[in-house]
Design a protein that fits this description.
Length: about 625
């Protein structure tokens, strides 16, 4: 197919007449059968790069993503477009997974979304060779690299898919942020047949990056939002603060709401829709907010709390200004924030013996016998667990994260799984049942009017919506579903909200739980490096913010001219070129000798008034230091 055919698909389903930068290049690459790594910034339209070519070809596209909420969201959107899609993740029963895979083999589904830990299960491996795959898309591909900021051992299993599928099926790895080291690691770990990286510049020229060192964040936020127009996001680190900051804004007359993973799906959808349509101006959120956002006119993203790595900050701040118009990314920062981050470093990496204690406590809590548990999914209540074993919450959470990183288990935070229903009788047999059991007839008709596809797969239902459509009570609705299930007319899986633990290895005795000190220190060191870079960004008042961020991702750039550092330089009324020339001369002189300010001015071959401005700026920012005799030294 030529590119015009792909544009027609884009227009038909998504209403766009042309592709965004890089989308077209990635589509060409994968349709030529080439393994491809696509680096696209947040809001760059990554999903289009696999959805469009998959629709243009026969077969089904396998999409691997660790984000269950995003997985559900994309499957729902595709099905609304009448593109048959299905998801398999750890929150589903074995019967649901079996049913979904059979539908993918024998039905005309175009997309199968799976979470990475499903790849190594027997049920998936037994079926994958029978899938008519056209493409394998790997979202959040940085998770495969131990150098990445969100490493997941389950991603290392992805390359094993090549043993089961045709070598003509290309891999498309996608991520919004990766350092040069992570880029190489992704291609190596996915067993790319050739190096093939396609990327756009990370430079977001329309975003002004600002760091505001303020003691009272609330006062600054209120004043800023009162004099600034447009819609935006305020990111915080905790659910409690999320609500507190939103209430503070509302109290001061600013339209705001809060959003975090602890809310029900229905409430989160309602809050996001209110913000997306402009009814709510400001959404105060944890990092649970952002995936799948379809709002281009975001004028500001403000971080109340500093993230622990550049990747997270860049991805979250990149949700501003997707329409290409001027926008602001503001980080509020105090000395206490730096202390908190360094304190979190200690909590994030508990002692090895403490990690082993928590592993044993978890196995006992879930009643997993020695030598068993592999690939079993357990519902997990963190608060009940820490209460029963009298464990500190943060240390416990971080120990579970480390056990996940070591490949012993997968740990998902709370997910909302709605109730699901699947008719397991034929339409003819159902009709006979309705005739013979008149008391169920009205409810069955209500189900069939409200939802489609229930004869071929498990379909999410909402008991509250059924309640509103009928005169029945909630208990009556529930009893109908339970009774029909007991009569083998339907399979009914009640909805739950819970975290999940999946053991990727059988339970081991304590001494067999290998956490090597070298590996522990190596992982901790990599985290410290990322943490130092983030603190360096916040602390620095001499490096252009944009240049600092781009340098982290291995990209060279001139200073932006719009961040807080550049604006202060701009007040000197010197061009970048002139400022840098004078600065370079001053540096070269001070490396060789230590004159006082008056002598230094005479040694620089530029107009005196301009040299004085640069010297003052360097003194103000501690780039040059005077001693007791007023002699100047370059502070490297």
């Amino acid at each position: 197919m030529n590119i015009e055919s792909y544009r027609q698909i884009l227009t038909k389903y998504w209403g766009f007449s042309s592709f965004k930068p890089l989308q077209e290049d990635i589509i060409r690459s994968v349709t030529e059968g080439r393994d491809t790594l696509g680096l696209m910034p947040t809001g760059g339209g990554k999903s289009i790069t696999f959805q469009v070519p998959a629709l243009a070809q026969e077969g089904i596209c396998l999409v691997i993503t660790p984000l269950i909420a995003l997985m559900k969201d994309q499957v729902n959107r595709l099905n609304e477009l009448e593109i048959k899609s299905i998801a398999i993740h750890s929150g589903m029963t074995g019967e649901e997974i079996d049913n979904a895979l059979e539908n993918c083999i024998f039905g005309d589904y175009k997309f199968l979304y799976i979470s990475p830990e499903r790849i190594s299960t027997r049920i998936f491996q037994a079926r994958v060779a029978r899938l008519n795959l056209s493409l394998v898309a790997i979202d959040e591909a940085h998770c495969i690299s131990q150098w990445g900021y969100d490493f997941r051992p389950s991603y290392l299993k992805i390359a094993s898919l090549r043993e089961y599928i045709s070598d003509k099926v290309p891999f498309l790895a996608l991520t919004a942020s990766a350092t040069p080291q992570v880029i190489d690691d992704i291609m190596k770990k996915l067993a790319f047949r050739e190096k093939n990286v396609l990327k756009t510049s990370f430079n977001r020229k329309n975003i002004s990056y600002l760091v505001r060192k303020v003691d009272d964040k609330g006062t600054y936020l209120i004043k800023t939002l009162m004099k600034t127009g447009g819609s935006g996001i305020v990111y915080v680190r905790s659910r409690k603060r999320c609500k507190e900051v939103a209430e503070l804004l509302v109290y001061n007359g600013i339209s705001a709401d809060f959003y975090h993973a602890g809310l029900t799906d229905e409430l989160r959808d309602k809050k996001q829709a209110s913000w997306t349509t402009g009814e709510t101006r400001v959404i105060v959120a944890t990092n649970a907010f952002g995936m799948g956002i379809d709002k281009s006119e975001v004028r500001f993203v403000i971080h109340w709390d500093i993230p622990d790595c550049i990747e997270s900050y860049f991805q979250e701040s990149g949700r501003a200004g997707r329409d290409g118009k001027p926008a602001f990314a503001v980080l509020l920062y105090t000395p206490a924030d730096k202390s908190r981050l360094l304190d979190n470093l200690r909590k994030k990496y508990p002692p090895v013996e403490k990690i082993k204690d928590i592993y044993e406590a978890l196995c006992n809590y879930l009643q997993v016998p020695l030598g068993s548990g592999k690939d079993i999914v357990f519902e997990f209540n963190m608060y009940d667990f820490v209460a029963k074993f009298r464990l500190p919450v943060i240390e416990t959470y971080n120990s579970l994260q480390f056990l996940q990183r070591e490949g012993y288990m997968e740990f998902t935070e709370e997910i909302n799984n709605p109730s699901r229903v699947h008719f397991i009788v034929s339409r003819d047999d159902l009709y006979k049942f309705q005739v013979a059991n008149e008391s169920f007839d009205g409810f069955i008709k209500l189900l069939l009017r409200s939802y489609t596809g229930m004869f071929s797969e498990f379909v999410p239902i909402n008991e509250e919506a059924l309640l509103r459509k009928s005169a029945a009570t909630r208990e009556t609705i529930y009893q109908y579903l339970v009774k029909l299930s007991s009569l083998n007319i339907i399979r009914y899986i009640p909805g739950k909200k819970s975290a999940l633990v999946i053991f990727t290895e059988e339970r081991l005795v304590r001494k067999a739980l290998m956490i090597s000190p070298d590996n522990y220190l190596n992982v901790k060191e990599k985290y410290e490096i990322r943490l130092d870079k983030m603190i360096g960004y916040a602390d620095s008042d001499t490096h252009c913010r944009s240049v600092y961020l781009l340098d982290y991702f291995g990209e060279e750039s001139d200073r932006c001219g719009t961040c807080d550092v550049c604006r202060e330089r701009n007040e000197l009324e010197l061009s970048k070129y002139e400022f840098d020339l004078i600065l370079d001369e001053i540096k070269s002189v001070l490396i060789e000798k230590n004159p006082d300010a008056e002598e230094l001015v005479k040694l620089i071959d530029y107009p005196e008034d301009r040299v004085i401005k640069v010297i003052r700026w360097l003194l103000d920012h501690n780039k040059i230091l005077p001693d007791r005799d007023h002699k100047l030294t370059w502070n490297s």
